[in-house]
Amino acid sequence: MTMLGLSACRPAPEAQPAGSGALRTNILVEKPGSEPAAEYEGTPVYYPCAVLTDDVIAAAGLAYTDHTLAGGTRLSPGADRPELAGTTFEDISCRGYLRRAAGRDEPEVILTTLNAKLSSPSAWRLATSPQAEKAGAANGVGYHRLPDRGDDEVTVAFDDGGHGSANAFTLNLRHFSAIADGEKALAKLIDGVTRNIAAGPRPMPEHSYPEPYGLTAEPCDAMPPEVFTAVTDLPTDGLQKDLFGVDEHDVVNNRAIEITCERVSLLDRTERDPASLSVQQTIYAEGPAVAADDVQRMCAYEATTKDNSPLPQPVGDVSCGVRGNTVTGGATVCFHVGRTMVRVSLTSHEITGPAAIAKVADGAKQIYALLNR
């Protein structure tokens, strides 16, 4: 999914004095979640990010690349809706790019889950159909490795170890040849993944950042489902994607971290792509003044571009809008709140032009109120 906000509303390049201190890597802290395990209509739901945990990655001798976004999808609050049964065509997933030992391409690890009640019948059949080249079991969980298709990708499918036979798992390692001692790493991943599956469904892990951020990160708190519906006039698909920057990055020579929430609409029976809405927060170590300056500088730059669009009303003290192009549709609205630069981006072929700016600006005002508490 391509989000408009990943390209629009970026600070314009400008020479700045050096920031305070070197950028820190791998500062994202993960710990087991404290919420109850998720269910859909009484059926347990596994979250891949609670299975492919940081300790499983580390035990396999792997590490995420610098500046990658970690995280994945989960059920959204209020998603236990009967009309969602059989609608999920895309797997619930958890993924990240890994440091490579060879080649030009970064390897990627992806763990996906399908739930028997949520998934479409065709997606469930595809995920559970026997295509084994090498079958086995570990920690009481059965698995089979799918045949090599010559695309430098390894795929292993897992059952749920007797936890209701309601969830199916698939582990993908892309650009497998770029992983040092890949077969050994794969064996360790299989051991860790099966151990966590055997332990039963668990909530999503909790993520936080150390000082000076001092933040427990909950990206989708900024965009509850009702905000998505207010902007798109559509219900969500019942899922949300929470993404977390693994380490600090440089924004015009200022230190910052990045967290993102993404939601998409429920697929209908037409050929239309679903609408998507993302909220990207860039949170500055140096505080509110730096964040406000960068948003002001960015909006001054956007004012010189052809896609710039005035907002019906300002959002906070500094804000601006950018129309989407013919590929993405929609619009992006950027604003400042506290120590954070926020980009709210809509991708929609049904909502375009001034209407898109107005709808996204209205959603941005609601998001501003949630973040400005």
Describe this structure in words.
The chain is of the alpha+beta class. The chain has 2 domains: 4-17 and 206-371, Protein Transport Mog1p, Chain A (3-Layer(aba) Sandwich), CATH 3.40.1000; 35-198, Protein Transport Mog1p, Chain A (3-Layer(aba) Sandwich), CATH 3.40.1000. The chain has 6 helices and 20 strands. It has helices at 54-59, 121-128, 182-198, 225-232, 288-302, 353-371, and strands at 29-31, 39-40, 43-44, 69-75, 92-97, 108-115, 134-138, 141-145, 153-158, 167-174, 206-209, 215-217, 239-245, 249-251, 254-264, 276-284, 308-309, 319-323, 331-337, 340-347. The protein has a 15-stranded antiparallel β-sheet that branches. Strands 1-11-12 form a 3-stranded antiparallel β-sheet, with no helix packed on it. Helix 4 (225-232) runs antiparallel to helix 6 (353-371). The longest helix has 19 residues, at 353-371. It starts with 28 loop residues before the first strand and ends with a helix.
